[in-house]
Design goal:
Blueprint lengths: L1 H25 L5 E5 L3 H7 L4 H22 L3 E8 L7 H24 L3 E5 L7 H14 L6 E8 L1 H17 L10 H5 L12 E4 L18 E4 L9 H17 L10
Parallel strand pairs: 1-2, 1-5, 2-4, 3-4, 5-6
Helix pairs in contact: 1-8, 2-3, 3-4, 4-5
The structure holds ligand V07.
Length: about 260
């Protein structure tokens, strides 16, 4: 009896989810969703587990959300996995984090290939440990020809750093006479950023109750809808992602077809 009730309840939940999913798909979906996956340490602390247990749990959620985003038909998913600031954490924690890409890809790369996902990195990949670099370049190479969801990991990424690097390259080219100072425009700067081949995020999600950008895609987020939730990243699920998308769609409807730039 109890089992039956539970099963019925699960069915109702999944029916509700399917309805919400179908409804979201009937409207304008955000093309590009970016996520600051915060709260893994706090999730672990609440359970008196070590921080790394929270990171591991967080990695499992990345798989779940990637699958769901792909199913929904999202074009680009950018995930902030490791910031340039994260090197300041205890060495053992950093070492553990640097193993997560291999751990993730070791079990999940075949599924990503099968699901036509293209894996991409933005950040300073050169200065990652060899084993991490090997795993991520292998994943990028093996998925380079896929044209489904673009799964873009921000790894050893910092936005100000990205902008400074772009400005240095531009300055060099001006000095070499390849371009003139007059030709520097937003469009030109765009083309020197690590996101040059991506569209700008339509929706930014940050979990865990912090309401700041923490040096993440500062240039690219100029017109992005921002959505903050108290949910910790390891507790984030399909329903949470739909909630963010539903909120995005309500805001879009309210603007009655006007684009972000025209409202301010
Ligand atoms: C990391 C799990 C998610 C929560 C945030 C911090 C910890 C997946 C990856 C990853 C990165 C590149 C790649 C495949 C997977 C990852 C780090 C941390 C450093 F090609 N999760 N995850 N990388 N966390």
């Amino acid at each position: 009896m109890l089992k039956k009730l539970i099963r019925k309840n699960e069915k109702t939940i999944s029916k509700d989810m399917n309805d919400r999913k179908a409804k979201a798909q009937q409207e304008q979906l955000p093309n590009h969703i970016a996520i600051i996956m915060d709260g893994n340490g706090r999730w672990a602390k609440k359970r008196t587990l070590p921080r790394i247990a929270g990171h591991y749990e967080g990695m499992k959620i990345v798989k779940k959300i990637t699958r769901f985003a792909n199913e929904l038909g999202i074009k680009t998913l950018t995930l902030y996995a490791f910031s340039t600031e994260n090197w300041k954490r205890p060495k053992l924690e950093v070492d553990f984090l640097m193993r997560l890409p291999e751990e993730f890809l070791g079990t999940y790369l075949p599924e990503l290939i099968e699901q036509n996902v293209r894996v991409n990195m933005m950040g300073n990949i050169e200065s990652l440990p060899e084993h991490t670099k090997r795993a991520v370049t292998n994943a990028m190479n093996q998925t380079a020809n896929n044209d489904g969801l673009l799964l873009n990991f921000a790894l050893n990424y910092g936005s100000r750093d990205e902008i400074v690097q772009a400005v240095q390259k531009i300055a060099n080219e001006v000095q070499e006479g390849k371009i003139t100072a007059d030709s520097i425009s937003e469009k030109l700067l765009d083309s020197y950023l690590m996101t040059k081949d991506l569209t700008e995020p339509d929706l930014l999600i940050r979990t865990s109750g912090e309401v700041r950008l923490s040096n993440f895609m500062l240039w690219q987020l100029a017109y992005t809808e921002l959505w903050f939730t108290d949910t910790l990243w390891p507790d984030f699920d399909e329903s949470s992602l739909l909630e963010a998308i539903e909120s995005f769609q309500t805001r879009n409807r309210r603007y009655g077809g006007l684009k972000g730039e025209e409202i301010n």
